[in-house]
């Protein structure tokens, strides 16, 4: 499959790892509606390509993402008056859908594991876009900030759902109330990021983690596991998880991957899983409804 090209991103696939690099380094990779559309399309591409087993998201230059591009000044967030066609296409009953939320909902639905390699400053949507990514690694040069109240707006990108689940309500509120920019060390201590790395070691560490996933697991099992963990974060009773688990185990247990996984273990050899996410993903959510913005 030919690699897609994007206006605001670099995209490459090597040894099963897709790397999506935010690529507006002269603007510290500030977020625009074009970047939103490009990132959504990039995740469409990773889902559709069975050669992709894991995704890494990082930034070009010295920043990860400096938040929304403020080049249009005080009217930056006056979406109702925007004539940007990428924004206008998402107006529903007079309400402009938040672009960061459109992106994070797409990442939430990813069929491949997503690793953030946060190489530098990440504020506003630069940090909220990371929240539905599965594992976040950060450079010691990274900085984070939920700066919305300092710009006279509110948290976006569905971060009011994601952030408390990652760091707890108290920490989420402190960061959002104060809007202060904080260190990678604090982000690590509070559980926002999994590990800290010297700048030159960040991408190798992210790739090593991706390789551990790719080299040892069945892609269809990983896709289902991702859905189980994320979707059950909002379930109101463990019975919902039990029903989904039961369907998943039944479907996977009858699949060729399970036979290969057990035989490889018994024969003490690496497994070669035959099933593919694009065609072998079972439906374990008979009552799952795609949420619609109304």
Explain how this protein is built.
With 294 residues, the chain is an alpha/beta fold. It has two domains: 9-213, 2-enoyl-CoA Hydratase, Chain A, domain 1; 217-280, Orthogonal Bundle (Lyase 2-enoyl-coa Hydratase, Chain  A, domain 2). The chain has twelve helices and eleven strands. The strands form three sheets. The protein has a six-stranded mixed sheet with strand order 1-2-3-6-8-11, sandwiched between helices. It has a three-stranded mixed sheet with strand order 7-9-10. α1 packs parallel to α3 and α5 (159-167) crosses α6 (169-178). It is globular, with a radius of gyration of 20 Å. The model has no long low-confidence stretch (mean pLDDT 93).
Q: What proportion of the residues form beta strands (DSSP E)?
A: 5-15%
Quaternary structure state of the chains depicted: single chain
What's the N-to-C terminus distance?
36 Å
Sheet with the most strands? 6 strands, mixed
Low-confidence stretches: none
What would you call the shape?
globular
Query: How many DSSP-defined strands?
Result: 11
Average predicted local confidence, pLDDT? 93
Number of domains: 2
- Class by helix and strand content? alpha/beta
Overall CATH class of the largest domain: Alpha Beta
CATH superfamily of the largest domain: 2-enoyl-CoA Hydratase, Chain A, domain 1
Q: How many DSSP helices? A: 12
């Amino acid at each position: 499959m030919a690699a897609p090209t994007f206006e605001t991103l670099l995209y490459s696939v090597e040894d099963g790892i897709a790397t999506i690099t935010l690529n507006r380094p002269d603007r510290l990779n500030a977020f625009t509606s074009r970047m939103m559309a490009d990132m959504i399309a990039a995740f469409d591409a990773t889902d559709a390509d069975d050669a992709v087993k894991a995704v890494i998201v990082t930034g070009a230059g010295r920043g990860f993402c400096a938040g929304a591009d403020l080049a249009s000044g005080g009217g930056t967030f006056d979406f109702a008056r925007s004539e940007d066609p990428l924004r206008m296409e998402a107006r529903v009953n007079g309400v402009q859908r938040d672009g960061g939320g459109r992106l994070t909902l797409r990442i939430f639905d990813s069929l491949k594991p997503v690793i953030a390699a946060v190489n530098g400053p990440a504020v506003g949507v630069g940090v909220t876009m990371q929240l539905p990514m599965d594992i976040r690694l950060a450079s010691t040069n990274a900085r984070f900030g939920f700066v919305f109240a300092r710009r006279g707006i509110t948290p976006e990108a569905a971060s009011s759902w994601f952030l408390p689940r990652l760091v707890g309500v108290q920490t989420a509120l402190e960061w959002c109330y104060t809007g202060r920019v904080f260190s990678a060390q604090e982000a690590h201590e509070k559980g926002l990021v999994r590990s800290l790395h010297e700048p030159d070691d960040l991408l190798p560490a992210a790739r090593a983690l991706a390789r551990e996933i790719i080299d040892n697991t069945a892609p269809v099992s990983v896709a289902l596991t991702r859905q189980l963990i994320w979707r059950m974060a909002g379930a109101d009773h463990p019975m919902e998880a039990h029903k989904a688990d039961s369907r998943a185990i039944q479907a996977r247990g009858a699949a060729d991957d399970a036979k290969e996984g057990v035989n490889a273990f018994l024969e003490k050899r690496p497994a070669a899983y035959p099933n593919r996410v694009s065609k072998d993903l079972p439906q374990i959510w008979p009552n799952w409804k795609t949420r619609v913005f109304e």
